[in-house]
Amino acid sequence: MKILPFVFLGLALPLLTALYYFVSFGQEVDKVFLSISTFLFSILTGFFISRQASRFNKMRETVTTFGGLMSAVYRSSHHVSKKMQTAMGKVIAAHYERILDTGVWNIHLKEKSTTLTELHKLLDKHIVEEDITKLANQSLGAIVKSLVGSQGIRKQMLALEEERIPREQWFLISFFALILVGTVSTMTSVGLLLPAILKAAFVISVVSVLFILYRLNNLMFTEKIMGQHSAEDVLDIIEGSK
Predict the structure, then answer these.
(1) Low-confidence winner among 30-34, 48-52, 144-148, 183-187 (lowest mean pLDDT)
(2) d(Cα 12, Cα 199) in Å, to the nearest integer?
(3) Is 62 helix (H, G, I), strand (E, B) or coil?
(4) CA 175 remoteness from chain centre
């Protein structure tokens, strides 16, 4: 995925340049349309990129915070009993292994998840079974606090997941992008190498902006899987390598 933009650029730029160099796209449109469409497109995409980038950062923070709380639950359970820590470790590991195996970071939001429910059940079970020392009692309090915090974080992730760009706004952005590309395409460039290159670069930049916006809207701008490093870190803690 990381090399795809470079492949696209390497193929699209010479192909579009050749197209604009040899093919005329009809009568040139007044440049006022280019100015207006550029302004409207930049305003819309700038607003949504800023909004979706903020959403992406918030989601990454909540995913990381959730991972930190799961790590805290696992580590704190050690002070209650080894048996409880092993049981909780299996539940938490299964949660993150499912994400990494499917490659779908939000699978626990899209499908039913019993991770927090199972952890609460294990907590109830071991409170009954184990002799609670002062340290164990404090650890149980920390675990309960982490689980409560995890539930709140999960609700935040659900809310952020829904904050996507509506279809009608996608239509409006695409409409202005088409106007912009169409207006630029009518500008004279047949037999002129530099104008053909500039037109090709301009069209590619418009497509690139839409591509960036699409990736931000789907929360897949950096890592292959949102929270992949956080998930791997939690699994490393459970496996004992950290």
Answers:
(1) 30-34
(2) 12
(3) helix
(4) 25
Confidence of residue 224 (pLDDT cuts 50, 70, 90): low
The pTM score is 0.79
Cα-based distances in Å from 5 to 9, 41, 122, 159, 217: 6, 21, 47, 30, 17
Contact 216, 164 (CB under 8 A): no
Alpha-carbon dihedral 74, 77, 83, 88, rounded to 10 degrees: -40
Q: What is the mean pLDDT of residues 209-236?
A: 81
Which tokens in the block code for residue 98?
A: 């499912």
Quick check: helix, strand or coil at residue 225? coil
Per-domain boundaries in the chain: 4-239
Closest of 16, 43, 29 to residue 179, by C-alpha: 29
Non-local (6+) Cβ contacts of 165 within 8 A are 48, 52, 173, 213, 217
Whose tokens are 């970071």? That residue is 105
Residue 170 above 90 pLDDT?
yes
Q: What is the DSSP string of 161-195?
A: HH-PPPHHHHHHHHHHHHHHHHHHHTS--TT-HHH
First to last CA, the chain: 29
Q: Taking 80 as the threshold, does the pLDDT of residue 106 lie above it?
A: no
Sign of CA dihedral 32, 37, 38, 42: positive
Q: Going by C-beta distance under 8 Å and a sequence separation of 6 or more, which residues neighbour residue 196?
A: 17, 18, 20, 21, 189
108, 115 Cβ separation under 8 angstroms: yes
